[in-house]
């Protein structure tokens, strides 16, 4: 309905109608095939020559539809738009009804009879045109999609939350002893306690929680984004101990190993700067820089 010159490509996936989940009406077809026919029907109703193609992608749902040309001249655009409006309203008013009970248009095509509807006089609320609201409650997406995965939050805000949560885990229980025998000496490094996401949230102020709730995943997403510091498993937050991280399974050639090691030293080690015991790994084994002089 955007304009007469509009073309479209669609790759149907989840089974949804205009107003909710798509309701099956034919048992002789698979659910996928029936839904594909419905999507093609929408294209035909809108006055398109609908072409079907199968994409070369690793997916079980790879049938696509393309609408590149119209089935009617530009002079009939207003008439077809009125039929589209009636079709939309029929889907809304008769969502559970069978195909032959819906009303709204007389448009013949090669859609196995799905689109040969019985015409009738439109109701008062079905006489909308392109100049009015397309359908009640319809909200199109913004032209620029807002990033809401915590990646666009101010760096100072993220650093403050990370430091507060880390201190909470370190101070929530008596110091844990993670001992490694190195040269006959015991090296104790405080890994802190593990807390549930709810327990962590209870210790954050209201303004911080309000800001996080506006992001997808909220606190959990922010903590997972900070993979260097935290590990979130089964709804519980832990401070990551890099001594327990598994080394890469594949052995790389010497040249590739040297290049990847150099490339890793692009960020400062959070533990070296903020943890009371420093980093649990020596500088040569840590994937992060122990000081600005190691940054590459």
UniProtKB/TrEMBL annotation:
Chain positions of all zinc fingers (C3H1-type)? 263-293
EC number(s) for this protein? 2.1.1.211
Q: Do you know which InterPro entries this protein is assigned to?
A: tRNA_uracil_MeTrfase, Znf_CCCH
Keywords from the named record: Cytoplasm, Metal-binding, Methyltransferase, S-adenosyl-L-methionine, Transferase, tRNA processing, Zinc, Zinc-finger
Its annotated compartments are: Cytoplasm
Domain of life of the source: Eukaryota
Which catalytic reaction applies to this protein? Answer: uridine(44) in tRNA(Ser) + S-adenosyl-L-methionine = 2'-O-methyluridine(44) in tRNA(Ser) + S-adenosyl-L-homocysteine + H(+)
Instruction: Pinpoint the C3H1-type domain residues.
Output: 263-293
Identify the enzyme class.
transferase
Q: Name one GO biological process term.
A: tRNA methylation
State the family named in the UniProt similarity comment for this chain: Belongs to the TRM44 family.
Question: What is the purpose of this protein?
Answer: Adenosyl-L-methionine (AdoMet)-dependent tRNA (uracil-O(2)-)-methyltransferase.
Show the PANTHER family listed in the entry.
TRNA (URACIL-O(2)-)-METHYLTRANSFERASE-RELATED
Question: What is this protein's record name?
Answer: tRNA (uracil-O(2)-)-methyltransferase
Q: What is the lineage of its organism?
A: Eukaryota, Metazoa, Chordata, Craniata, Vertebrata
Its gene?
A: Trmt44
């Amino acid at each position: 309905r955007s304009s007469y010159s509009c073309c479209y490509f669609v790759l149907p996936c989840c089974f949804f109608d205009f107003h909710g989940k798509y309701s099956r009406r034919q048992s002789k077809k698979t659910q996928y095939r029936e839904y594909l026919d419905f999507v093609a029907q929408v294209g035909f109703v809108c006055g398109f020559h609908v072409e079907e193609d199968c994409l070369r992608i690793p997916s079980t749902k790879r049938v696509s539809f393309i609408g590149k040309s119209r089935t009617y001249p530009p002079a009939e655009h207003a008439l077809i738009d009125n039929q589209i409006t009636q079709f939309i309203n029929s889907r809304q008013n008769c969502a559970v009804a069978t195909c032959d009970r819906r009303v709204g248009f007389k448009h013949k095509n090669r859609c196995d009879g799905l689109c040969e509807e019985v015409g009738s006089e439109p109701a008062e609320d079905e006489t909308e045109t392109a100049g009015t609201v397309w359908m009640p409650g319809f909200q199109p997406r913004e032209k620029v999609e807002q990033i809401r995965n915590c990646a666009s939050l101010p760096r100072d805000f993220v650093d403050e939350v990370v430091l507060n949560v880390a201190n909470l885990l370190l101070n929530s229980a008596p110091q844990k002893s993670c001992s490694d025998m190195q040269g006959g000496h015991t090296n104790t490094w405080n890994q802190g306690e593990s807390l549930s996401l709810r327990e962590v949230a209870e210790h954050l102020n209201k303004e911080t929680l309000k800001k996080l709730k506006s992001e997808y995943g909220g606190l959990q997403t922010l903590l997972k984004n900070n993979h260097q510091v935290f590990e979130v498993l089964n709804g519980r937050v832990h401070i990551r101990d890099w001594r327990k991280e598994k080394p890469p399974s594949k052995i790389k050639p010497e040249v590739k190993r040297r290049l990847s090691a150099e490339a890793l030293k692009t960020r400062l080690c959070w533990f070296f700067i903020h943890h009371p015991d420093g980093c649990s790994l020596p500088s040569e084994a840590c994937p992060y820089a122990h000081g600005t002089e190691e940054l590459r």
